[in-house]
């Protein structure tokens, strides 16, 4: 038996991934940029065992079967192919963030799985190769492989479609204050959402304009320019939600409180707080702000009735190996 344990953080996209040009390979319609979220991580142990009749998946102490296991097995199959082994694996995974807190766990989960599984199989993959492997489990997971502020290049095919670091975690002391509005499981998940993105007449315009938004966002990060960042991050989030709302079926992830907080954040910026919002495929609002303004932003978010809790996360590092046996 050989086993390895790896840990990877969740990430929040500044420029969003929404829609694939190849759903099976998870080749995205556009490039994206994100920040790893320190302290919100998944830790996964993979052990390949000759005696196992099939792959097993245990998440937070619970044995999981069905589509979630199949998705994990698909990534394990890629690893088995690379390592030329037929052994089945036991996968034991724990998220340190509260289950159902509305924080997507697929990014941290598949980044940790890619690293743990490849090491357990005796492979020593390069960062781009690991990122590509994680991508095939969950698109956004490819961005949780490198550290800090990360860009996922859309590439021309599987080979050059991976993520790389733009700047390390200590480059910019940014804080993501996450206002948790609902911990209900989303009705339509990202995978199904990506599949219908192209039905929106707005998606083509969103995709065509993506290189411009990526350039501005990359520049804002490199120069630590919060003003530039806030405009482009909010525009990009709104553009993704415009696509979601106008796809078939229409996907409405915002709740009234989501919009209330978004508007409040814009007012706070007028008052001089360095804060901006971004919203993923759910109702929770991620408020990005500078370290200096984080305590004030947190206090203000907690004051909304309907905000169940506020999580905070600073820029996080790369996926890392915890143990090998
Ligand atoms: C709205 O990576 O969760 O968070 O590839 O199907 O697992 P799958 O989708 P996923 O999509 C993330 C969508 C998003 C935007 C983003 O993180 O870029």
What can you tell me about this protein's structure?
The protein contains 9 helices and 14 strands. By secondary structure, the protein is an alpha+beta fold. The chain folds into 2 domains: 2-168, 2-Layer Sandwich (Ribosomal Protein S5, domain 2), CATH 3.30.230; 174-313, GHMP kinase, C-terminal domain (Alpha-Beta Plaits). Strands 1, 4, 5, 6, 7, 8, 9 and 14 form an 8-stranded mixed sheet that branches. The mean pLDDT is 96. Ligand DP6 binds at residues 13, 16-18, 26, 32, 104, 106, 138-140, 190-191, 194, 280-281. Residues 13, 16-18, 26, 32, 104, 106, 138-140, 190-191, 194, 280-281 line the site of ligand DP6.
Topology of helices and strands:
Layout: E1 2-15, E2 20-22, E3 27-28, E4 32-49, E5 56-59, E6 62-64, H1 67-83, E7 88-95, H2 106-120, H3 127-137, E8 149-152, E9 163-167, E10 174-180, H4 190-196, H5 203-208, H6 210-222, H7 226-245, H8 256-271, E11 275-278, E12 285-290, H9 294-302, E13 309-313, E14 320-324
Parallel strand pairs: 5-7
Antiparallel strand pairs: 1-4, 1-14, 2-3, 4-7, 4-8, 5-6, 8-9, 10-12, 10-13, 11-12
Helix pairs in contact: 1-2, 1-3, 2-3, 6-7
The structure holds ligand DP6.
């Amino acid at each position: 038996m050989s086993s390895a344990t790896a840990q990877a953080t969740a990430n929040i996209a500044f420029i969003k991934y929404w829609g694939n040009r190849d759903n099976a390979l998870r080749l995205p319609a556009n490039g994206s940029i994100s920040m790893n979220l320190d302290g919100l991580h998944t830790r996964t142990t993979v052990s390949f065992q000759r005696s196992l009749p099939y792959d097993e998946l245990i998440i937070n102490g619970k044995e999981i079967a069905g589509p979630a296991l199949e998705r994990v097995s698909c990534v394990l199959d890629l690893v088995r192919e690379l390592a030329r082994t037929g052994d089945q694996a036991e996968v034991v995974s724990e998220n340190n963030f509260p289950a159902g807190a509305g924080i997507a766990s697929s990014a941290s989960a598949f980044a940790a799985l890619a690293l743990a599984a490849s090491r357990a199989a005796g492979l020593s993959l390069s960062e781009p190769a690991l990122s590509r492997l994680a991508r095939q489990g969950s698109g956004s997971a490819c961005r949780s492989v490198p550290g800090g502020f990360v860009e996922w290049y859309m590439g021309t095919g599987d080979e050059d479609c991976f993520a790389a670091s733009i700047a390390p975690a200590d480059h910019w002391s940014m804080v993501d204050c996450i206002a948790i509005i609902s911990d209900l499981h989303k009705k339509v998940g990202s995978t199904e959402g990506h599949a219908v993105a192209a039905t929106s007449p707005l998606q083509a315009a969103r995709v065509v304009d993506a290189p411009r938004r990526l350039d501005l966002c990359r520049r804002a990060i490199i120069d630590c320019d919060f003003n530039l960042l806030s405009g482009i991050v909010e525009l990009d989030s709104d553009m993704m939600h415009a696509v979601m709302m106008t796809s078939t079926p229409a996907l409405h992830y915002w709740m009234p409180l989501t919009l209330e907080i978004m508007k409040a954040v814009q007012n706070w910026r007028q008052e001089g707080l360095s804060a901006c919002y971004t919203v993923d495929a759910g109702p929770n609002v991620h408020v990005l702000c500078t370290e200096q303004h984080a305590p004030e932003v947190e206090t203000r978010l907690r004051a909304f009735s309907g905000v169940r809790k506020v999580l905070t996360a600073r820029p996080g590092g790369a996926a890392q190996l915890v143990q090998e046996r």
